[in-house]
Amino acid sequence: MNKQIKLVEIKSEIGAGTRGASMGIDALRIASLNQKSDFFNRYEEREVEDQNHLLFEEIQTPSAIRIRGINQVYKDLSKAIVETLNEGCFPLVLAADHASAGGTIAGLKMHNPEKRIGVVWIDAHGDLHSPYTSPSGNVHGMPLATALNMDNKQAQVKEVEEEAIKHWEEMKNLGGIAPKISPEDLIFFGVRDTEEPENELMRRLGIKNFSVAECREKGFEKVTQEALERLNNCDIIYISFDVDSLDAEKVSHGTGTPVPNGFLPTEAQQIISALIDSKKVACFEMVEVNPTLDEQQNKMAETAFKILDQTAKKIEQNF
């Protein structure tokens, strides 16, 4: 069994607006069996407790739905990341919805308080909302705002409940460190479905988004090198790969918020592999596989697993 990589698994789906992402990790397991892979035997696993029982309770905080449970997920996942890093292992995170990513970043920063963390966010969405700006209240659209310690109240569209504010502040300040990342150390790949509060924040903070069109026009080798140059002053890099960054029309709709005109799987793999070759990547995360929404049986998980398996092998080569 490989001791370098450890799988950190969290099935929390309370941050999403659709149900079924909690089944994503099992869908990846089925894909591995279908592809006759020993992936899930190669690595030790650490399971993090979810709070999915809250799905059956009445929503108390519409501005940030089930944020109490997500706050707990942040605490538990960040602890798991710290423990994995303390063991000298590379955390390869398999998560359900993207809300938990703020906990992953928190754990990285808590383990590396003096280090500068670069974030590469491969996603169709910016996930820069806060309870003050989110049109849906779904917290899977907010993880980067917690890491950046930003409310963006300039673009406030709703009143936020006292309970939501309490948990939001705890999430931003988890580990006693806020912010955990800087805007200049955040890079988007493939973001193409955003709301105006996010767009305004991206403009104001100068966050770089490598669109699908720009990647294809310049070439994937060139844009990944440009991304690494932008993150040159970062000590470590964290990659978060949301499968909705892939083209929903050409791959699958098996994700919570599918968007057309995304990356092809080979293109996403090019980005990830080039970043890992920098030897700065300290954590990789895959999120938002939802087999209940897949019109092609398990096509999204089958596609995502191939990327996951290749990524793990690339990590092994570099660490």
| Main sheet specs | 8 strands, parallel
- Going by CATH, the homologous superfamily would be Ureohydrolase domain
Main CATH class: Alpha Beta
Query: What would the average pLDDT be, to the nearest integer?
Result: 97
Q: Indicate the CATH topology.
A: Arginase, Chain A
Instruction: Please tally the β strands and state the result.
Output: 8
Rg, alpha carbons: 18 Å
Tally of helical runs:
11
Task: State the separation between the terminal residues, measured CA to CA.
Answer: 16 Å
Low-confidence stretches: none
CATH 2nd-level architecture: 3-Layer(aba) Sandwich
Strand content: 15-25%
Order of helices and strands: EHHEHEHEHHEHEHHEHEH
Structural class: alpha/beta
Number of structural units classed as domains: 1
| Residues in helix, % | 25-40%
Adjacency order of strands in the biggest sheet: 2-1-3-8-7-4-5-6
C-alpha geometry: globular
Report what the structure shows:
This protein is α/β, with parallel strands linked by helices and 319 residues long. The protein has a single domain, classed as Ureohydrolase domain (Arginase, Chain A), CATH 3.40.800. The chain contains 11 helices and 8 strands. It has an 8-stranded parallel sheet, with helices on both faces. Strand 7 (236-242), helix 10 and strand 8 form a beta-alpha-beta unit. The radius of gyration is 18 Å and the shape is globular. The mean pLDDT is 97.
